[in-house]
Structures are given as structure tokens and as C-alpha cells.
Amino acid sequence: MTWLVTGGAGYIGSHVARALAQAGLPMVVIDDLSTGFESFVPDGVPFVRATILDGENLQRVMQFHKVTGVIHVAGYKYAGVSVTRPLHTYQQNVTATATLLAAMESCGVDRMVFSSSAAVYGTPPAELVTEETPKSPQSPYGESKLIGEWLLADQGVARGLRHTSLRYFNVVGSASEDLYDASPHNLLPLVFAALVEGRTPRINGNDYPTPDGTNVRDYIHVADLAASHVAAAQRLDAGVTIEPAYNLGSGSGSSVGDIMRTVAEVTGIAFTPEIGARRPGDPARIVAAGDLAARDLDWKMRHSLREMVESQWIATRRAAQPSEAG
After folding, report:
1. CA dist 138 → 80, 121, 175, 237, 279 (Å)
2. How far is residue 130's CA from residue 294's CA, in Å, rounded to a whole number?
3. Whole-number mean pLDDT of the chain?
4. Catalytic residue among 78, 121, 141, 246
5. Taking every pair of C-alpha atoms in the chain, what is the biggest distance, in angstroms?
């Protein structure tokens, strides 16, 4: 049983790949390296540099490596930027997913773990989101992830695809010092870059209807997220019952202000963030209950907010060090 990990050279995908390797599950990684790094792929794991928009190549990869399941992490993940790049977002997240599913159908690959998002909920009416909370995405990114879930569900009805979608929001931390988040849009990389360069970090809005005026989110450690992807894959391999979607949520959440205060403590750099305008399509609060995932996918918050920030700071500083090679 071999798993294809799409986007497996990226920040999240590489953590999933390493967790699969630690669990002894064979895999092949495909990534176009638009945001990932080949060095992130675990040693000894076959790597294919390619886009998942190429359906014929996907079929060749699946056939050659005898793929039986797909963990689909690849995608365009920037909610705020998606508002100004909707067509690109749909191409990368909807067209690519449909292409991937078609290749799977052609090759008889019948199981998928889909990396979805809490952005499918938009700004939910309840304080705590469950899997049954109405879906009302507020950005092309959130819409594209919801469409992806619909595609999986339709293939389940039409072709017997066994699948689950994992919904989460802000992923932080590092499970290894050589794996870091290089995103130009995610909060912690932006904050760390500013501090290293001697600039004051900037946050988007402090006038939201939250206790400190900043966005409240589930911040979850990337290693905990990866562990639940592996548990979902194992559950699909075992043929046991699995829910169509799971929230990987903290149940409580943290604000951007909480993050800023923790960054100051971890780095030892005192600062007061500059306040910018709200980002379009950015809800005030999304906090999810993770009860179903805890029941089925070994989901739990194993790391404190400080541990998340500290591990990412260590990985970021290591990445910034000049190479000793040459």
C-alpha cells in the first residue's frame, strides 16, 4: 500500500511525509516546488517534481509506484491573497483536485485524505465550530476548499471513493529544525522576518469584535496535524468507518495578540506591533471543536502556544544561517 503525498515538499506536506515514514507507510511525493523544497522530502522517499494539473503524468506516477491512496496537501493556501487572485486559486485548488481525482479513477486508486480548511465556515454564527456548522466561506480560498470537499463526496457516490477531509486553520511550529515555514503570507514567518531585519511586525486589524480586537484562530502544531493525517490514512487502509470531515481544532483558540506576546517572550525582543487594515475575507473568529477527530484520528493538542512559537523560531533561525558547504 503506497500513498502519494501531493505537496509533500512543502511545510505541511513534508511533516506529513515524515510522519508517514515514521509510521512505516510507503509513499511517493509529488510537488512542483513552487513553495516547497526538495530537501524537505524524507531521505529515501521517491520524489517527482511535477504539477498535479498534468493528469497524464499523475497516472504514470500512480501506476509506476503502485499507489493505493492519496494524501492531498498541495494547493494555494492564502485566503487573503485569494481575494485578489480568484482564478489562480480555483485553478490550483479546484481544477487540480478534479484532475487528481480523474487520474485516481483511471488508476483504480480509491482512497483520499484531503487537506481542507476551517475557512469553509467563513464567520460562523456559533462560538465553537463543529463539523455540522453551516458552511459560508468568505474568500475564494475557502470556497475552493469547500468545492474540493464536494468533489470528493461526488466521487464517493459515483465511484466508491473512500475519503475524509481534515479542516484546520493556522498551522505553526516545527517538528524538526530543518523544516520551516517559508510562506510570504503566513503570520509567524512575517513576524520573524521583521524582527530579524530590525523592523516592527505588522498585524492586520485590531478592531475585530474579539477580547483584544485581533483575530482569534485555532493555532495548531504542524506535528499534531501530521499525526492525524497518518491516522486517517491508516483508517482508510484498514477499511473501517471514517467520517467525511473532521475539525482539527483546539476548542479554545488564541488571538493574534496572544501570538505577538508569545513571540516577544520567546525571542526576547520587545515590540509593539504596527496595526494595518483588515484583510479582505478575514473572519474575526474561527475556533473549532476537535471531538470527532480525537475519537477517530488520535487528535490532540500536544503542544502549548509557547512550544509552537519556540519550535518555529528555532527552525527559522537555523534556516537563516549561512550554509557551511563550499
Report:
1. 10, 8, 31, 34, 11
2. 13
3. 94
4. 141
5. 56
83/70 Cα distance (integer angstroms): 28
What pLDDT, on the 0 to 100 scale, is given for residue 91?
A: 98
Tell me the mean pLDDT in the region 51-62: 98
Active site residue 141: yes
What global pTM score does this model have? 0.94
| Residue indicated by cell numbers 519556540 | 310
DSSP 8-state class, residue 93: I
70 and 113 Cβ atoms separated by less than 8 Å: yes
Of the candidates 282, 284, 257, which has an alpha carbon nearest to the alpha carbon of residue 271?
Answer: 257
* Closest of 247, 258, 248 to residue 309, by C-alpha: 258
Angstrom distance (rounded) from CA 196 to CA 256: 19
Secondary element (H or E) of residue 72: strand 67-72
C-alpha cell at 32: 512542483
Give the whole-angstrom CA distance, residue 229 versus residue 15.
Answer: 10
- H-helix or E-strand containing 86? helix 86-90
SS3 241: coil
Q: What are the structural domains, with CATH classification, of the chain?
A: 2-169+220-247 (3.40.50.720), 187-216+250-320 (3.90.25.10)
> Is residue 258 within 8 Å of 305, Cβ to Cβ?
yes
